[in-house]
Structures are given as structure tokens and as C-alpha cells.
Amino acid sequence: MRILVLGGGVVGVASAWYLARAGHEVTVVDRQPGAALETSFANGGQISVSYAEPWANPGAPLKILKWLAHDDAPLLFRPRLDWRQWRWGLTFLLECLPSRTRHNTIQCLNLALYSRDCLKALREDTGIAYDQLERGILQYYTDPAEFARGVDAAELMRTYGCDRDVKTPDECVAIEPALAQCRHRLAGGIFTATDESGDAQRFTTELAQMAAAEGVAFAWSTEIQALSPGGDAIDGVRIVRDGERFDTLAADAYVMALGSYSPFLLSPLDVPCNVYPAKGYSATIDIGEHRGAPTVSLTDYDWKIVLTRLGQRLRIAGTAELNGWDRSLNRTRCEALTARTFELFPDAGDRDSARYWTGLRPATPSNAPLIGRTRYRNLFLNTGHGTLGWTMACGSARALVDVVAGRKPGVDFGFTHA
Ligand SMILES: Cc1cc2nc3c(=O)[nH]c(=O)nc-3n(C[C@H](O)[C@H](O)[C@H](O)COP(=O)(O)OP(=O)(O)OC[C@H]3O[C@@H](n4cnc5c(N)ncnc54)[C@H](O)[C@@H]3O)c2cc1C
Hints:
Strands 4, 5, 6, 7, 14, 15, 16, 17 and 18 form a nine-stranded mixed beta sheet that branches. Strands 9-2-1-13-20-19 form a six-stranded mixed beta sheet, covered by helices on one side. The chain has helices spanning 10-21, 60-67, 83-95, 98-126, 144-159, 169-175, 200-213, 262-266, 331-344, 389-405, and strands at residues 2-6, 25-29, 46-47, 75-77, 137-141, 165-167, 188-192, 196-197, 217-219, 222-230, 233-241, 245-249, 253-256, 276-286, 297-300, 305-310, 313-322, 355-363, 370-373, 379-383. Strand 19 and strand 20 (379-383) form a beta hairpin. By secondary structure, the chain is α/β, with parallel strands linked by helices. Bound molecules: flavin-adenine dinucleotide. Flavin-adenine dinucleotide (FAD) binds at residues 7-12, 30-32, 36-40, 43-46, 48, 223-224, 257-259, 261, 280-282, 306, 317, 359, 361-362, 383, 385-391. Residues 7-12, 30-32, 36-40, 43-46, 48, 223-224, 257-259, 261, 280-282, 306, 317, 359, 361-362, 383, 385-391 line the site of flavin-adenine dinucleotide.
């Protein structure tokens, strides 16, 4: 089949790769001049299968209320006159019910586990390199009360098949010696040895090159304006190249992988897509001659930030702001990332080298992405991966190939329109 993949982020490029491998003739369309230049550009770098719990949990509403007035809060809801934001917020509240949280956790965990296996297989198959490290993820706590809650949560996650080991402060330092710099602040940690990390942007650009060698075509600098329906199918995609040349592209099938922008193209078609952007920040610093940068990927639970080693760089990422599609940098939120990092790891790197960035996580209220069919027989979804798009990209794309072929995917997950 001739397939148009709409979107050249990590999810779109992975979709193109697996579809091409399955024998399809694939073209990727994206408004940027290359791969992974929007949300997949500078994320936290974690393949965090074992931390796949959704934001929506019974404790979330109270925390969010408490954080409303704090500009540096980890999760900040900025109320707007936007029905999309309110619809998302109300559904998020429903997803905080204990039964929904349990269901969503299992869904995300299943897909994340499957995805990690797909990523490993892809690595073995192609030798793709992207500053990856297979040294696990250590979640550390500086607040003893939060740590006690974390120990209970780890127990629960173990019952779902996650290998989360509770560690004392000294054991944390033994796993990641850089934590010796803040040993006196640690309450404990939870370690998952099987988790990984790596640079999502480098992965995506490398994979795009490999896909091109397999025959995938890339239409960069091409804005998608609308999908044209015809009866029960999509007839074509209206585009504009380089801002001036209007055209229509047609194919046998279409994959929606436009991340946070997917709802704009799907609403006119009446295809449900409750995706809202959750803006996040990252800082990338050069390590240089400094000796105190961690190599094991870390999650600072109390500040909800991650620290990931990417070669000679340290990526610090986190915070979430529900405030529409605005990507401007808020100085307070940027500096909160580096301040916390250098407070705990004074010798982590060259502070003045910090490059700040924002990206819009395509979040669904449940945290589970939208993958599968739609009411149009040739339109498929692969979007809404929120906090876990890098973790879930390969598995989502691999499963999509089965959905397109009309086969049952090899993962227990609630696909759309199944
Ligand atoms: C601060 C931060 C930290 C994160 N940390 C992690 C992490 O540690 N682990 C993890 O698993 N995930 C993490 N994520 C989430 C992850 O980065 C995202 O889920 C993932 O990048 C989404 O990929 P995507 O391909 O769906 O979207 P994108 O990368 O945004 O790709 C969508 C593409 O669509 C294109 N596009 C949009 N509209 C149009 C249009 N009209 N016409 C043409 N092209 C269009 C864009 O140019 C873009 O290239 C983090 C995110 C953020 C912001």
C-alpha cells in the first residue's frame, strides 16, 4: 500500500520505519526541515517502562490545586477560555478514579514493555546508535514522606510485573556515585535496572536516514492544512510546500502522527482526539571536565525532573504546564531546572552552557496514547503519547503495522475503534 505518515517526530518516523519494513511504500510529511524538530527534540531521554504510571491518579487533583499559584510547580494548570482545555481537565478528573488509574497504569505498562522489546530488537537488527545507556533508572527522594509513599507504590507496581527495587541512600550512591554529592539529602530511592536512556532526537534522525535507505520518502517543510474526506475514506491531504506551493497528496492509507497538533486536523472530520499540550522544559548542559554528572538516568521524584546522560551532555527535563500551544520560555521555570540540579550536583557540568528548550507533550487525560483505526477505513491514529512518547514509540509503530494489516497486535492494549 502507499501510505502517508503525517508527522516526522519520533512516533511518525518509527511508524514509517516499521511500515516500510512490512513492505509498504511510505512518505513522511512534516512542516519542519528535518526529523524530530518539535516535541521529540530535547526530551528527558528516558525509556522509562517502569515509571509508566499516569499523572491522573487519586492524589493528583489535590496536588494540582495546591500548585495552582506557584510559577515553578511541577504540574501547572493555567485556566484559559478554551473548551479544549476544560474538556481535557474534566476527563482528567474522571481518570483520577482508582479503578481508572489501575486500568491506565496496566495499559501504559503493557505498551511500554512491548516497546522496550521492539527497541532492543531494532537496535540488534540495525546497530542504531543514539547515546544510549542500558544502566537503569534510579528514582531518588529527598522527602521521607514521599519516599514512604513511593515504597508502597513500588510494591503495587511489582504486582503488575515491574522490577522496582527499594534502595537505601547508601545503596543509591553505590548505583550512581554522583549522588555522593547530595548523600545527606537523600531519603532513599527506587531502582529499575532494566530501564534505559538515550537521545530521542538522535535516534529519530538516524532512523529517518535508515528509512530513507529502505525507500521511505520525506516531504519536509510541508505544512498539512486539512484531510479531505470522501465517503468512508480519506481521499487526500491538502498541503502547502515551503509556505507557497499548494498541492494535494493522495495515498491508500494515512497515519496521523502530528503529536499535539493532531486534534486540529481530526476535529473537522469528527474523529475523537482528546489530546492537549502539556508544555515541558529541558536544559542541556555540557559536562566538559566536570566529574560530578550522573551516568545512570535519574528521576528526582520530589521535583518531578529527570537527569539523563547523553554522551558528554547532561539533559535535565521536566515540569508540565497546561496552557495551550504556547512554547515561549518562562525564565523562572528554566532556572528552576538548573538550580535544583546544581544544588544537588554542584560538579555536574558547565552551568553557563545551559541550552533551554520547551516542547508540547501530546497528552491524553489517561496518559494512554491513541493508536488504531478510525471511522474512516484508511485513516489510522498514532498520537497522544504524552509523557512517554520516546518510551512507547517503537512498540506503538510496530503494533500499528498489525492494525493496518488487520491483524491483532502482539500487545494487550486498548486500540481505538477495535
Ligand atoms: C520536557 C519533556 C520531557 C520528556 N521526557 C520524556 C522521556 O524522558 N521519555 C519519554 O518517553 N518521553 C518523554 N517526553 C515525551 C516525548 O518527547 C513525546 O511524547 C514525543 O516526543 C512525542 O512524539 P510525536 O512524534 O508524537 O510528536 P512530535 O515530536 O511533536 O512530532 C509531531 C510532528 O508533527 C509535525 N506537525 C505538527 N503539525 C503539523 C502540520 N500541520 N503540518 C505538518 N507537520 C506538522 C511537527 O513538525 C512534528 O515534527 C518528554 C517531553 C517533554 C516535552
